[in-house]
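Q: Got a minute? One more chain.
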Amino acid sequence: MKSLIKFLHTLPGVGAATLLILSIPFIAMQFTPEVNWSAGDFIIMGILIFATGSAYVLLTRYTPNFIQRAAYGAAIGTTFLMVWANLAVGLIGGGPHAGNLMYIGVVAVVIIGTFFSGFTAKGLELTMFAAAIALVLVASVALLANMQSYPGSSVAEIIAVNAFFIFLYCIAGLLFRYVALQQAQAKTEG
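A: Always. Here it is, folded:
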């Protein structure tokens, strides 16, 4: 079991896990017409899963601290879930709407903030809180632009969906804050 976990924490392991995950809809397509993925769906989902797993592996490879690995997992997992849900059904309304493009800005905040943070816990804490603020702005713009009138959308849905992701980014930010405080305390003691 330990060797399997070690293997999954490598890029070939991420590739194998990606193929395993993608085999689920592929097999389901053989038995039910309810699952109908195109080649493009498999490519996009494969890229998304592999990129997410690779980011986690590369960022946590030399991280001995469990809380810091959990913080990375929360940040990367939240971003993955937000992108996946937006691609699958759209976070504003039921289907593709221009309002869903605003979430690209949130992903940009996460990516740019991560690089400008120098991958420090304090910088990543601020990045996660900046992503939460970006989601508040997305929800505000959506409501001010009357996007709740889109088919399959409502005020409650826009608020709930964005509040969910705000909560997850805040959890990641608080985990990074805890790591930053631990690191600061270790410096003062050392």
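A: Helices lie at 2-8, 11-31, 39-60, 66-88, 103-116, 121-144, 155-189.
Q: Perfect, thanks.
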